[in-house]
Structure formats: C-alpha cells, structure tokens
Sequence to fold (179 residues):
Amino acid sequence: MENSPNRPAGKVPISLIVNGEHTEIAFAPHKTLLEVLREDLGLTGTKHGCELGECGTCAVLMDGQPVLSCLVLGVACSGRSISTVEGMADGPTLHPLQKAFADLGAAQCGYCTPGLLLTAEALLLDNPSPTRQAIKEALAGNLCRCTGYIKIYEAVELAAAWMRGESAEPAREILYGQR
Fold:
C-alpha cells in the first residue's frame, strides 16, 4: 500500500467514538488502546498499571462494557464506542459516582479511581440496585492498594441511590470515620 499525505508511514487510521465524540486517528498498529488513549488522544485519566490485565487500573468502557485497555489493541477498536473517566462528568457537574467517591473519601491516592469509576458505572447501568455482594463481584478485578474497599463500596451504593432519584446522604459515621 502506498502512503498518502493523510496517512503517515507505518500508521493505521481508524474511526471510533471517544466519550461521545467521533474521532479519526492514525497510530502504530502495535499500540494498545491504553497507549492510544494516553499518547495519541491525550486522555491521561486512564492509568498504566500492571499492563498484564491483573489490576484494573486501565479499565475503560467499550460499547458500555468494562475492558482492560492494556489488553486491547487500538486497531480492534475501529467503529467502537470508548468511554473514559474524562467523559463521565457533564461539564462542571460530576457524575454521581464521582461525587460519591469525593464525598466519602473513597479515592485516596486516586490512581485506581478511574478504572473503579468506569467499572462501577457499567454495573449501575446494568443493575441500578446492586447488593453489596454484586458491587464486590463487579469491582473484584480492580485493585486498590490504599483503601480497605469499604468506602468504595459505600460510594457505589450512595451513587446508585442518587441515580435512582433517591435523596440519600452518607451516614454521619461514614463521613467522619466513626465506626
């Protein structure tokens, strides 16, 4: 194949939807979705973790389902819809999950937070009223080294209530660490 002015040598062009916006991009065919998001699209919310598919730090949504972007080749995403943490908020208004994580202190260092938020979003879209066990199972592939996960589970429960239209508030002992 001949190189055209619109196609740099050694790069493969694809078209996809990223955070609701149609995107056309060309990149080296060996790049993972993680690398394309971070290096080519500047969406650095998706984090490098283990790069082995074991930590969940790089989780994004592909067509509404969580995927580990370190294990997906970018070229496999042609025509797909990709959602990253940058696409969760509605302008200055945080997504209910983002607000609940912030309000409850569910994010400590924050490195794992984007993957947790997107995995939780997929859960809540599929199951608006998950049990604590369902939340644990959905987030089982997302590792966090800082927390004991309790505040994360509580934040998902609170966001789920808000997304169902309930005027739920975190319990006082949750806010102030009194257990």
About this structure: The radius of gyration is 18 Å. Helices lie at 33-40, 96-104, 113-126, 132-138, 150-163, 172-175. The mean pLDDT is 92.
